[in-house]
């Protein structure tokens, strides 16, 4: 009974109805309807957010929560009713004919086939799936061969035809993300800057008074090998003069391999998952000077890189986890090797104090201006208007 009242208090009546329908009937969708709007859009993404838009704690879990609200608002502003359905839901809405089909596979592909005359916009939030699957296998094979382990291929992406079916592709990422795609798809693609779920207001002066030159951070989610944690640990286990902070999950097999070495060290600190807006993370970030993230597949600078930069931490990242201006604000790793990590650390140690402080300030300022919900909103609205007009013009000329 306490659980029921807790859910009712936090969710409200409409949210409870949604929860019941999703649990009993498998329907996971949100419908926006405004009288007078004649056109309909189908959005294959995450509907839960529309029932929890006042739940700040929930919205802070990932930047995509506020971004889907913006996406919905833009469609409504442009005169569209819309259905938001969970991208991998087995219950597909077939109530409406759609003028636009937008979002993620697999439901993007299903609705694109059902609505052949619709404007189809694939929303790509990561690297090209064939690139990701290839580097997952390469990096995992490297780790297993070197350390005599048997780690499975984590985070493989199912084959799909979304890119080929789409009229246009909205890509979260940078010029480096586009390099993961076949040349034949580039003409369809437009890049967007994602927002950030880091909302703490930090003082740059506090950072400049607290940072320690020998402290480094790895912040990431699942797929430890894909995100290069093994390379960082192989290098830093020997560097007892440096402090390494590991925030985020470590895959079980990888954790088992390194657990004894980490536990026997005094310079490597593992925290598990932390809310980047928590006081504990902020205190860690105050002291860290460099962020290491040799990920082999990302949709541009991921949320972890952005959060670090918003804390004034200098990025040392692979090109797939970087952004167009990386050489001005940090260091781009040459490849996925321990030698590359060693070269990057040597670079960080070669900087004078004036250079370090300049980079701390520059990253702090750049990240605040570049990655926020207002920038995302403006870019998304501009692109959507542009592609709708382009599609309509082509129809008129057909």
TrEMBL record:
Keyword Endoplasmic reticulum belongs to the record: no
Q: What is this protein called?
A: Glycosyltransferase
Q: Which Gene3D superfamilies match?
A: Glycogen Phosphorylase B
Q: Which InterPro entries match?
A: Glyco_trans_1 (IPR001296)
Q: Which UniProt keywords are present, listed alphabetically?
A: Transferase
The Glycosyl transferase family domain extends over 226-331
Kindly give the SUPFAM superfamilies that the UniProt entry links to this protein.
UDP-Glycosyltransferase/glycogen phosphorylase
Superkingdom, taxonomy of origin: Bacteria
Q: Which organism is it from?
A: Bacteroides fragilis
Single GO MF annotation: glycosyltransferase activity
């Amino acid at each position: 009974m306490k659980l029921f009242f807790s859910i009712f208090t936090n969710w409200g009546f409409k949210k409870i109805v949604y929860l019941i329908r999703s649990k009993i009937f498998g329907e996971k969708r949100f419908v926006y309807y405004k009288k007078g709007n004649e056109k309909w859009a189908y959005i294959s993404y995450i509907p839960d957010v529309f029932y929890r838009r006042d739940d700040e704690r929930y919205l802070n879990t990932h930047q995509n929560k506020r971004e889907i609200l913006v996406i919905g608002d833009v469609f409504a502003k442009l005169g569209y009713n819309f259905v938001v359905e969970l991208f991998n839901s087995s219950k597909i809405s077939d109530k409406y004919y759609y003028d636009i089909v937008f979002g993620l596979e697999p439901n993007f592909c299903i609705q694109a086939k059902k609505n052949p005359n619709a404007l189809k916009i694939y929303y790509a939030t990561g690297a090209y799936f064939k690139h990701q699957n290839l580097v997952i296998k390469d990096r995992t094979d490297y780790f297993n061969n070197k350390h005599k382990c048997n780690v499975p291929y984590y985070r493989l992406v199912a084959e799909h035809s979304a890119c080929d079916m789409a009229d246009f592709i909205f890509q979260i990422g940078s010029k480096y993300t586009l390099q993961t795609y076949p040349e034949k798809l580039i003409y369809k693609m437009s890049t967007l800057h994602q927002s950030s779920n880091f909302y703490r207001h930090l003082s740059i002066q506090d950072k400049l008074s607290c940072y320690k030159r020998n402290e480094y951070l790895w912040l990431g989610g699942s797929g430890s090998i894909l995100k290069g944690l093994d390379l960082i640990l192989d290098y830093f286990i020997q560097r007892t003069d440096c402090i390494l902070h590991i925030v985020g999950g470590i895959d079980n097999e990888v954790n088992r391999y390194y657990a004894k070495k980490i536990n026997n060290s005094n310079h490597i600190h593992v925290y598990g998952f932390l809310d980047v807006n928590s006081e504990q993370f902020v205190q860690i970030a105050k002291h860290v000077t460099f962020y290491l993230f040799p990920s082999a597949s990302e949709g541009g600078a991921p949320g972890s890189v952005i959060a670090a930069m918003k804390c004034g931490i200098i990025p040392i990242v692979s090109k797939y986890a970087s952004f167009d201006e990386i050489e001005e604000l940090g260091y781009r790793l040459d490849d996925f090797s321990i030698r590359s990590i060693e070269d990057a650390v040597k670079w960080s140690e070669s900087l004078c104090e004036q250079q370090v402080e300049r980079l701390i300030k520059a990253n702090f300022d750049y990240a605040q201006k570049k990655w926020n919900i207002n920038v995302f909103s403006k870019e998304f609205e501009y692109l959507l208007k542009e592609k709708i007009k382009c599609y309509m013009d082509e129809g008129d000329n057909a």
